[in-house]
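DOMAIN: structural biology
WANTED: fold as tokens
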Amino acid sequence: MKILALVAAFVCAPVASHAGTFIPPKGCTAYLTVQMKSCEVSHYWTCGADPEGNHWIMSMDDNGPTFLQYLDREFRWLQSYPQGVDISRELITKESDANSITELLETRRDDFDFRQSVKQFGKQIAVEHITGFDRLNGTRVTIDGEPLLVTEFEIFVQSDNGSAPAHTTGNQFVSERFRLFFQGRETETAGGETFHYDHTPVLFIEPGEAGFLADRPEFGCDDMMSGLDQPLAIDLENQDDQI
């Protein structure tokens, strides 16, 4: 599916004075909505014209769409499109060490080393080199009834345009059922500054459930900066024993 046609197809059809319904592009089927602590909601869908296992994710805050991603079944970062700017990123293949959720689930660790092209108005302006790892830390949790594995991760991003490198560490969540990563608590250092984020999922909403494809985030919009002195998943229903 051509990306320009896809982006142009996004529509939010109002169903109430302060809320609407996100509508994926024609020929595509949404299968999951995730509400997060960070005043964000993400929608997941697949399209009939795409290779099997490929999927799209649109993230939205209380002002509308913020980030569009296109990934494959191994969670390789094929394309990404920050909304509201004329910047895009595209995976450069063949990777030195591709992302592999299969390897993570089978061996408990996945290292990666790849590059992506940064484009503005369709013209390459930089190449970013991404290295790091995901590692299952032995903890299982349940959030809104969804069983998840917890990871520790580290990512380094170095651009060839002279900008300061970025280093991010933290924890994420992996769903074996959906073959998806979900963000958690992260610390990013770039340009001498450090930023803390908490994108922990709160609700997993599937077709037919209340809130599916809702275009407004429900949590954290009055408290955007979450401290890291809180438990890893304060909204967990329960936490299982170590694996």
User: Anything to note?
Assistant: Confidence is low (pLDDT under 50) at residues 1-18, 225-243. The two ends are 41 Å apart (CA to CA).
